[in-house]
Amino acid sequence: MGQQVSWAAKHTDAQILMLYYHADTAAYSGQLSKARGLSRQAIAMAELAGSKDASAMSEGAEALREALFGNGDEATRIAASALTHSNAKDVQFLAGLSLALIGDKRGAIKVADAMKSQYPEDTIARFNYLPTINAAIALDEGHPARAVELLKVAYPVELGLAGGTAYLTYLYPVFVRGLAFLAAKQATAAAEEFQKIVEHPGIVVNEPIGALAHLNLGRAYATEGDGGKAKTKYQDFLTLWKDADADIPILKQAKAEYAKLQ
């Protein structure tokens, strides 16, 4: 890894991508402040190089991390900034899903409508990005069954890389489907979805949902009433996040939930 980082330092495009990967790796361990700093470096470098798409992709990834971790205001601000820099479908997906996850229905629908209009025949948009955004919207509206239905079209392709870039967007349909089953109190089905993520580390790599899958497995087992398995999964998550920033909302929630299992 050290050799690759040293090599990338001499190549601007590669260094931007390396900083993006580094930020995701930090976020995977709950080191959000570090991830933010690395994202800022990647964005600044991309802007200096005149690469609006690369800048927006790093912003979009940052917005999604903030949304997943419960920082709605930050997610809103960064998603809006990403969309001002690029309308690439990968950027629209990251921003749109971020907005949907934090409950900004109007913003998420606007992004989804723009994607549908710009990419009406695009396979990735039709079978991965749009279903995932729309499912997250349905979930926020309190319709988990509809969310699951919307994601059926993603089954054949959801284990593959959705984006047309080197930026990672793996397994988000699986993650949102798991959240939908969890909201519907279908704990066994939810556990199956989050287990897919845990069992595919070579696909999810350092995406933050790889760590969050352990937490949500714990929630699924707790819903089932299996306290033993629930504790184990909460412990797995808290071990991954042993050096995490203490003020992250989802970490506070996880610790409170785990305490109730004792």
What does the model show?
By secondary structure, this protein is mainly α. Helix content is 75%, strand content 0%. It has 15 helices and no strands. Helix 4 packs parallel to helix 6 (89-101), helix 8 (123-140) runs antiparallel to helix 9 (144-150) and helix 13 (209-224) runs antiparallel to helix 14 (227-240). The chain is globular. The N and C termini lie far apart (40 Å). The mean pLDDT is 94.
Summarize this entry quickly.
The chain is mainly alpha-helical and 262 residues long.
Count of discrete alpha- or pi-helical segments spanning 4 or more residues: 15
Quaternary status of these chains? Answer: single chain
Under CATH, the homologous superfamily reads: Tetratricopeptide repeat domain
Helix-strand topology string: HHHHHHHHHHHHHHH
Radius of gyration: 18 Å
Distance between the termini: 40 Å
Give me the secondary-structure category: mainly alpha
Mean pLDDT: 94
* CATH class category: Mainly Alpha
CATH architecture: Alpha Horseshoe
Percent strand equals: under 5%
Q: Main β-sheet: number of strands, strand sense, barrel status? A: none
Q: What is the domain tally?
A: 1
Total strands: the figure is: 0
Helix content: over 70%
So what's the overall shape? globular
Give descriptors for this structure:
262 residues; Serine Threonine Protein Phosphatase 5, Tetratricopeptide repeat; mainly alpha
Write the layout of secondary structure elements.
Layout: H1 2-8, H2 12-28, H3 32-48, H4 52-69, H5 72-85, H6 89-101, H7 105-118, H8 123-140, H9 144-150, H10 172-183, H11 187-198, H12 201-204, H13 209-224, H14 227-240, H15 249-261
